[in-house]
Amino acid sequence: MPQLETFQLQDIKTEPMTVKQVEEMAQMAGSYEALFSKRATLYKEMGLKDEKLSEADFKRYILEHYTFLSRPVIIADGQIFVGNSPKVVQQAIAFLSHE
Question: From the record, what ranges are coiled-coil (predicted)?
Answer without folding.
Answer: none
